[in-house]
Amino acid sequence: MFMDVILLLDSTVRLATPLLLTALAGLYAERSGVFDIGLEGKLLAAAFAAAATAALTGSPWLGALSGMVVAIAFALVHGAACITFRGNQIVSGVAINFLAAGLTVLLGQSWFQQGGRTPPLMGEGRFETITLPLAETVRDVPILGPIYSELLSGHYLLVYVAFLAAPFSWWVLYRTRFGLRLRAVGENPAAVDTAGISVAGLRYLAMVCAGILCGLAGSYLAIAQSAGFVKDMSAGKGFIALAALIFSKWRPVQVMGTCLLFGFLDAAAIRLQGKDLPLIGEAPVQLIQALPYILTVVLLAGFIGKAIPPRAGGTPYVKER
Amino acid sequence: MNAQLPRWVDLGLIPLLNLIVAFLVAGGVVMLIGENPVEAVEHILYGAFGFGEGIAFTLFYATNFIFTGLCVAVAFHASLFNIGGEGQAYIGGLGVALVCLAFDTFLPWWIIAPLAICAGAAFGAGWAFVPAYLQAKRGSHIVITTIMFNFLAASLMVYLLVNVLKVDGTMAPESRTFEEAGRLPKIGWFMELFGQNIGGAPLNLSFFLAILACVGVWLLIWRTKLGYEIRTFGANPAAAVYAGINPVRITVITMMISGGLAGMMALNPVMGDQNRLFLELAGGAGFVGIAVALMGRAHPVGVALAALLFGVLYQGGAELSFEMPAITRDMIVVIQGLVVLFAGALEFMFRPVVARVFARTATAKGAA
């Protein structure tokens, strides 16, 4: 029983990682006043770029790098449309999602001829899990041993990166000059402009941050968790991450908690597939999987506190003339 | 930026320019794969218009996109972004299928069809009601809630098809096939009017329903009091409230009309083609509707033309992927993305340039 719980929590951490990285990406974009429903597309494009590069070069590091470059490129297209050309941010996000969904499979099929997959990565091309020091030695210690060796140790590097990125983002957002400006530009861009700081520049910088994080998330999906890209492998994770971001009311530490909760629901749904539960009968797997969406809708309806988005979100900034 | 331009430039030239750029970029993608874009276009056009069955398939796909395009367009007029057409169409399919499953053993098709239309529209409208109500009353953003409702619709339908509606003893998650009375007649006679053979294409009566829906939406938006209120609310909500228009009422009604149109789309695949309820029945048409509505500038005529274009791309794309295996049907999704990007998000990109050109010719004329 205890071991079951440890394993469940272990897969919770694994499943929460891409959500966390993607939700933090959304945090930077939306805190700067750019709504980003293109997270899903950036995640998918990054996963493809990472897998394709890792397959061709045999290096997961180059893979992750190219994942980030591609995600930044998509983020900048979104930025150009929303910041420079003052287009509709939702429409632009939809376009990003379409482009990523189409291009990944189209180019994948054209380059590798495996029905949109990238070639499976062998040993070297994929990130390896990290065993923390002494993990094997303490495995037999009761209670704490399994927690350390199963739950904390033995994850991919990107898992640790993701869980450090959340407190780091808190520090950036609330303890640095850049963070103060970022929050200000999402609430009141005119004030930032008056202070002599470029609104467009800050927002583009935020989009680059979002690209980097989406790139890491995509790399995790394609070259750490799996050994290659498959069609539509993000499977709505970008939208769950968006839901997590809203559920946490655009705050970094809470984002981490929400992503762990949503990851836990996912892990539980996988474990309960086809099993009978006491009282309810067969586990309602679809219901558990739908819970993140239901919770977000309930939150948005104002039944659990109030989710107030950054005030300037969704509107392009026009300097007065 | 705010320079006045002639109407035909704003409504004709600039959208056309955006579209041309979108298709030029699409041509670039084809070249990147190492194929000839001109040849690709020839294959698409032959596949879509070269023979009777192809034309019928083109119109069959266009039927779906007219409904979903109108769905997005109606919401646009109230400045609402209904991204949930996919989920509304999916749930609409449930309504259509339930009517067919309930009555197909003892009622004729011409009684079942109107009932199925109403049920599809009602289910779609019902699925749009909650996001609309939450937007109007509780201030939750409709884009986010409709996205969530797309996923909820997918989960619900998987549950129903796997646990409730599946035929006992089979593996496939789909309902039983409807009896003859639960099927819409194909319209081979319509194709024969033009000397074409429908072949095996599933073009059916819902095509005419789609045309009727275009007329209906035009009447609604530009010829009724409700349409005027919708447009006023869309243009300036504050002014609309000042004029005595109830924002909650308009938001909810507009979204329910929008969802109802999406729900009616399900008639085409469920009652017209497959004759059963199946997974993923909307097949992304709800999202194509976004591109169609943007391209058609939210006008029924524009929507019908844009839906036809996407019908051509879907049917021609099938032919294309057969002739040029390197270009899979995912090319259509890329084109969809480019159209949404250039005709939607970047719609103002060329306006300053065009405005400058017009200003220069105007001064030149003034000098001469």
Automatic annotation (TrEMBL), chain A:
Entry keyword set: Cell membrane, Membrane, Transmembrane, Transmembrane helix
Membrane-spanning parts: 12-29, 64-83, 90-112, 154-173, 204-223, 286-304
Compartments where found: Cell membrane
Location (main, coarse): membrane
Membrane-topology annotation of the record: Multi-pass membrane protein
UniProt-recorded Gene Ontology molecular function terms: transmembrane transporter activity
InterPro entries tied to this protein: ABC_transp_permease (IPR001851)
Gene Ontology cellular-component terms listed: plasma membrane
Descriptive protein name: Nucleoside ABC transporter membrane protein
Organism expressing this protein natively: Albimonas pacifica
TrEMBL record, chain B:
Organism name: Albimonas pacifica
InterPro entries in the cross-refs: ABC_transp_permease (IPR001851)
Transmembrane region(s): 12-34, 54-76, 88-106, 112-130, 142-162, 201-221, 250-271, 277-294, 301-318, 330-350
Compartment(s) where it occurs, according to its Swiss-Prot or TrEMBL record: Cell membrane
Keyword Calcium attached: no
Keywords associated with the record: Cell membrane, Membrane, Transmembrane, Transmembrane helix
GO cellular component: plasma membrane
Pfam family, any one: BPD_transp_2
Main location: membrane
Keyword Transmembrane among record annotations: yes
Protein known as: Nucleoside ABC transporter membrane protein
GO molecular function: transmembrane transporter activity
Membrane topology reported for the UniProt record: Multi-pass membrane protein
